[in-house]
């Protein structure tokens, strides 16, 4: 199969039409129409086999995971998804792999409201680079900077699930099948919080998506805002499936804090807007949990029922916290 045939067969066909896509796949470049008066929001993500996913991961799961993770960056900016390009490097041309990949990619693209408008196909070790683009009204993008002292630190959904899902793939576990399926879905099929982010944008000061773990990503937000935070460990939202997965509370806490790849959002919201923010989240049936406060001191302090977590436990637990965020 030639490269041309491959692109035609798997990527060019069955693309949805949109008035915003004047010219999609098949020419030297795409021609696109940004919504009038809006700003373009752009992000790129690369996933390499063996580094970001196990090389034998089924093609449809690779597609779902790559697209969900990439679109999560648009959610974190409170942007609306528009279109994306895909640079795909394949070790060989397997028609069954490409078929499964393309079908899952098209399905997930439709669900997330984003259109594939171009790409590049090359031979080499399996990797995918997705450049996602969205739009936002001027002034409504949520950045990492902008937190203010006293803001409520809120997280969407639950934390640590994706790490447990990965753990169950790497090591056999004694969990029920229903719980395992759900946790693995959380790992393989990130659900960008697009709608909630857009609705919360006028109420929140800033946001980041949780790709590296709450500790690390909240750290980025604090650094950008030049502030610190108190984080209440007992408030971290854990799913029923995660609680069933392990009785080791320390381990669950570690996963919730540093497991990563949950692709939930961490936002800071002024207290005056909190009730309204919670009502919006409730109307979308997405948990929105108060996990701490923004403080002036440039440190990230972990609290256990309001008491600072002792340094000894910090070391044993392996948290890299009580750290200075910036000087
Ligand atoms: P050129 O040599 O002009 O860059 P290509 O042969 O690389 O053209 O691509 C032809 C068309 O197919 C372009 O519109 C390109 O965006 C699209 N394309 C190539 N690879 C992919 C892919 N993996 N997914 C989606 N579109 C692709
Ligand atoms: Mg090209």
TrEMBL record:
Chain residues that bind Mg(2+) 3: 28, 73, 209
InterPro entries (UniProt xref): PurM-like_C_dom, PurM-like_C_sf, PurM-like_N, PurM-like_N_sf, ThiL-like
Binding site for Mg(2+) 2: 45, 73
Superkingdom of this protein's organism: Bacteria
Domain annotation PurM-like N-terminal: ranges: 26-135
Protein name from the UniProt record: Thiamine-monophosphate kinase
Assigned protein family: Belongs to the thiamine-monophosphate kinase family.
Chaperone among keywords: no
Binding, ATP: 119-120, 144, 211
Reactions catalysed: thiamine phosphate + ATP = thiamine diphosphate + ADP
Presence of keyword Magnesium: yes
Organism: Nitrincola iocasae
Keyword annotations of the record: ATP-binding, Kinase, Magnesium, Metal-binding, Nucleotide-binding, Thiamine biosynthesis, Transferase
Residues that, per the record, bind Mg(2+) 5: 212
Enzyme Commission no: 2.7.4.16
Residues in PurM-like C-terminal domain copies: 148-298
One example of a Gene Ontology biological process annotation: thiamine biosynthetic process
Residues reported to bind Mg(2+) 4: 28, 43, 73
Residues that bind substrate: 52, 261, 319
Other remarks on this protein: Reaction mechanism of ThiL seems to utilize a direct, inline transfer of the gamma-phosphate of ATP to TMP rather than a phosphorylated enzyme intermediate.
GO molecular function terms listed in the Swiss-Prot or TrEMBL record: ATP binding; magnesium ion binding; thiamine-phosphate kinase activity
């Amino acid at each position: 199969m030639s490269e041309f045939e491959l692109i035609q067969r798997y990527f060019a066909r069955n693309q949805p039409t949109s008035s915003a896509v004047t010219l999609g796949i098949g020419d030297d470049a795409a021609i696109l129409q940004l919504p009038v008066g809006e700003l373009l929001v752009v992000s790129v993500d690369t996933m390499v086999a063996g580094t970001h996913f196990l090389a034998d991961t089924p093609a449809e799961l690779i597609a779902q995971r790559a697209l969900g993770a990439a679109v999560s960056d648009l959610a974190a900016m409170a942007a609306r998804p528009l279109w994306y390009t895909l640079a795909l490097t394949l070790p060989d041309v397997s028609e069954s792999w490409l078929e499964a990949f393309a079908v899952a990619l098209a399905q997930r693209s439709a669900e997330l409201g984003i259109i594939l408008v171009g790409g590049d196909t090359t031979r080499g070790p399996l990797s995918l680079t997705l450049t996602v683009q969205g739009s936002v009204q001027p002034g409504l993008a949520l950045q990492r900077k902008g937190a203010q002292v006293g803001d409520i630190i809120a997280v969407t959904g639950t934390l640590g699930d994706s790490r447990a899902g990965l753990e169950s793939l790497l090591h056999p576990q004694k969990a029920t099948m229903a719980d395992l399926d759900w946790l693995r879905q959380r790992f393989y099929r990130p659900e960008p919080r697009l709608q909630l982010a857009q609705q919360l944008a006028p109420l929140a000061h800033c946001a980041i998506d949780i790709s590296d773990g709450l500790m690390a990503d909240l750290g980025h937000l604090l650094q950008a805002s030049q502030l610190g935070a108190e984080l209440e460990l007992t408030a971290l939202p854990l799913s029923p499936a995660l609680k069933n997965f392990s009785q080791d509370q320390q381990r669950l806490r570690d996963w919730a804090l540093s497991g990563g790849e949950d692709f939930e959002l961490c936002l800071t919201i002024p207290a005056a807007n909190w009730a309204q923010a919670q009502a919006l989240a409730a109307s979308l049936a997405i948990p929105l949990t108060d996990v701490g406060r923004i403080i002036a001191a440039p440190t990230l302090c972990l609290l256990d029922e309001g008491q600072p977590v002792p340094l000894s436990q910090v070391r044993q637990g392996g948290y890299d916290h009580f750290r200075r965020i910036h000087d």
